[in-house]
Amino acid sequence: MRRLACLTVLLSIVVLPALGGDAYAAGNTCTFTQSGLPHNGRWNLATDWESCGGVIPGAADTAVIPFGSSVTLTTDESITQLTLGGGLFLSNAHVVTVTGSMPDPAGELTGDGAVTLTPSATFTKTTATDFVVNGTVRLTIGADWSESAGLIKVLASAQISVGATGTISGGSLAVFGKLTGSLTLTGGTLAGSGLITGAVTNPSGIVAPSSQPSSAFGKLSIDGSFTQSGTGKLRIDVAGTVPGSGFDVLAVSGALQAGGTVEVNAPGYQPLITDEYRFLPAGSVSGSFGTPSVTAPTFLDGRAYILDYFGAPVFPTSGVRLLLNPPIVAENTALPTISANGALDPGTTLTCNTGTWTNNPTITVQWLRGDAAIAGQTALTHVLTIDDALQSIACLVTATATGGPATAISGGVGTSGFAPVNVTLPVMSPVSAAGQTATCTTGTWSAAPEPVFSYLWLRDGYVIVGETASSYQVAVADVGQRISCLVNADNPAGSKATASKAQLIAAVVPANSAVPKLTGNGKLGGTLACSEGTWTGTPPPALTYEWLRASTPIDGETQPTYELADEDGNRKISCRVTGTNAAGSTQAVSAAVKADKNTEQKFGSSGFDKIATKIGMPSNKGCKRPKPLSITVRAPSGVDFKTVSTKVNGKKNTTRKSGTRFTTKINVAALKRKHAKKITVSMTLKTPTPITIYAKRVYKIC
């Protein structure tokens, strides 16, 4: 059953001009206070009206009957405005004349009397409340009127008479009695099973014939023309084949101008094939409705309602009917075909010509690659992609009539291989200096079959000979140049080379952030080591060393270590490191070390020969015969020797320790056989301090 009270409808409000004279003279707002059982209040009891000047409402007053109050009219009355929220019972054909307005009525107007809104007064319904006209009441509206919300219900014996067009923009008007005058639906719903005498125009509302709430179906009559267009909708409930009790009927005595749509509601009902529902008889028919939408149920076996127009002389009247058609299946009489707008390359558009079918089916298309559907490709056209290479492309056409779908497939279109096309450039990994290694990606390519890739490396656009791997170590020659990689993609259909973006290998002058430092033995005969410090630069700088004595370079000393000599005594020794690359050179000098004289070197004198005497090396007077020479040394008083090493004519000679003595034996005869003329004995004696002492003596061979 349609539940009219639940419909939500938009409203438009018509504001009309005021009457002349003193019809709207200021008066009292009289509110009725008596309430109880229906109709137990009396209009003509002054004590039941508040703020009314001690009298009942008069011609200049506004009468307010609030929700919960019920008033019985037993005399004819005239007022300026009626605000009805409760009940008003008109007895014995009495009349209330409203010379002003009746805004947003609610509650119930009933009895056997009449309410008259004089010409050019206003009647508007703007809130979501119910207003019921009951009994044999006649509500006469002399001007345009409007409803934009709520429900206006005209029951079986009641009547609304209007002198001009009513506009429904929202809410619901349910006519079970009679409405005289014309209606326009710009929204909202017109329902009921009564009579409307006048033209009904429905450009964007809903017309829904229906009976009293106690019945499921009804017949709504229009004694005039009915025009539906735009988004207007005619709603028909169906649950049987008896007009008015098995399905809704809209009966139009005048001309029907069909448009908009028809909605069929058939909850829980399965009609029989060939069932007929003449739901819209009319004096004449023009125009056409859209295909009816069936909201329930889903009919079995492809059965569906269709609209059919009938008319004289076969039938006594013209009109529209619903028929339930048997299912039909489309038949293919000419297979689909494919056409192309060019060579079968990526980007070429294929068009599916769907073939020829009987029974006017709904056509859908699915493109196939081989035997598989191409996802998302359901339009009449398909643009070839790289994935289509070396494939057979076809279109599958499905034709659906009421009896279900039928299919047909076009012949396949074979595509050839596609030459490589670069989609995204190769990418060279970031490098900034010589010695760093760059790698090159292939980028992305469209090709069929998959291409084979090869590489070249470019220096300022020129090929670097011999560099054909996917990686490249930046050379010093690249500093100040732009390096890029070139990728060549090749397949049987063709080849294409594309270069990466170039990167500048910029040279940066060396910079020292931590100066060199000296470590080691700072006494005469000791060894100092110079750290390089910390350097930056592009390419990384090459480092060279200089040793300085009192800030002056020491000739020939360019190694990271330096052995302090006698002339360094009490002098400041430092090292200078120079960093050099293609961009230039930078120097950094260590803090200086003052070279102390080695007290253990003194032994009362300085010089290697005197030290040799001091430690016990034999005298070098005369010459040594070709027989073994044994040299034994020991530390002077106050000095300890930790180790002693000996070299004879620059070659190491074994030294043995016995207590505090160190002995080395020299084979003079062997030296003579080698034609040696002299014996140079050098000794290095290390102390626990640690301090190193050097002694040297030269002997002649006889």
Briefly characterize the structure.
The chain has 3 helices and 72 strands.
Topology:
Layout: E1 29-32, E2 41-42, E3 49-50, E4 62-65, E5 70-73, E6 77-84, E7 87-90, E8 95-103, E9 107-111, E10 114-117, E11 122-125, E12 130-133, E13 138-141, E14 145-147, E15 151-154, E16 159-162, E17 166-168, E18 172-175, E19 178-180, E20 183-185, E21 189-192, E22 195-197, E23 200-202, E24 206-209, E25 219-223, E26 226-228, E27 233-237, E28 249-252, E29 255-258, E30 261-265, E31 276-282, E32 284-287, E33 293-296, E34 304-310, E35 318-325, E36 332-334, E37 337-340, E38 349-353, E39 356-357, E40 362-369, E41 372-373, E42 381-383, E43 392-401, E44 404-409, E45 413-414, E46 418-424, E47 437-439, E48 444-448, E49 452-459, E50 462-463, E51 471-473, E52 482-491, E53 494-499, E54 503-504, E55 508-514, E56 518-520, E57 527-530, E58 534-538, E59 542-549, E60 552-553, E61 561-563, E62 572-581, E63 584-589, E64 593-594, H1 599-602, H2 608-615, E65 623-624, E66 629-634, E67 643-648, E68 651-653, E69 655-658, E70 661-666, H3 668-673, E71 678-686, E72 692-701
Parallel strand pairs: 1-4, 2-5, 4-6, 5-7, 6-8, 7-9, 8-10, 8-11, 9-12, 10-13, 11-14, 12-15, 13-16, 14-17, 15-18, 16-19, 17-20, 18-21, 19-22, 20-23, 21-24, 22-25, 23-26, 24-27, 25-28, 26-29, 27-30, 29-32, 30-33, 65-72
Antiparallel strand pairs: 1-3, 31-35, 34-35, 36-39, 37-38, 38-42, 40-41, 40-43, 43-44, 43-45, 46-48, 47-51, 49-50, 49-52, 52-53, 52-54, 55-58, 56-57, 57-61, 59-60, 59-62, 62-63, 62-64, 66-70, 67-68, 67-71, 69-70, 71-72
